[in-house]
Amino acid sequence: MTHPAEAMPSSAYSLLDSGTYRSSILTRGPWHHEHQHAGPPIALVCRAIERAAAAHGLTHIARLTANLLRPVPIGELAIEVATDYAGRNAGHFSARLMAGGKEVARFTALAQRENDVPIPDGLPGHPLPPPPQGPDGLPQAVFPFAGRHVGYADLVETRVAHGRFFQGPCAIWFRLRHPLLDSEAPGAYQRVAVAADSGNGISAILDLQSYSFVNSDLTINLLRPPQGEWICIDARTLLGPNGCGLAESALYDIHGLIGRATQSLTISRRA
Description:
The chain is mainly β. Helix content is 12%, strand content 39%. It has 4 helices and 13 strands. It has helices at residues 39-54, 152-155, 188-196, 199-202; strands at residues 13-15, 21-23, 60-68, 76-86, 90-99, 102-112, 156-163, 170-176, 211-215, 217-222, 231-239, 244-253, 256-269. Strands 1, 2, 3, 4, 5, 6, 7, 8, 9, 10, 11, 12 and 13 form a 13-stranded antiparallel sheet that branches. The longest helix is centred in the N-terminal third of the chain and has 16 residues, at 39-54. The chain is globular.
């Protein structure tokens, strides 16, 4: 899957002595050779927000919104996290992702305190929807940009649950092949963030060679912590007649529905 001239890094990022992060080419996305796929840097910021929230006893990341201001370069990144409000049961956090002295993405998040609250039987809409067919034995999904160079397609392993990859609505299982950060097992929320930004791509209905359909944001809402290594993105793309669109995804782990994700799209024809 990889270009023979490029060595395979061991992780997406390395933590530097300065407290900043060095990006590896495993973060490279499909739109530009020197720009990252948004999934890995969103996951890296999610990790920083998780740590800030945990200091207040808030262990569930209920919502994470990433506003993608500029392309994220493959280079050194800095993260700034602020606690906007931390109460007894919920906290609001914000973060900035910096590269080359510029803010490239801005984040807000809601973290909640987890409590054991038994749910009555027979509630409408419950039990929650089960996941699509599990990843074991499913065919591998191959990104159309895989093989040109080391990048995001090498960072994740993908399996097709249903639909056709990059040809409309489909469900794809994702699992990290490499750690997000050197010598550290990625957390459950980080696994979701790496995968969720791909909803736009995997459910694409426009030709990648003829059109650009970049997302300028990502919002993830989760009703419970994910479990296990595999995350399923059941996605579809919706287009308006005004050069704008929406990608929406149902998110699953191997036990069932865990939440939803949305992305706002800007559509343009390539020269």
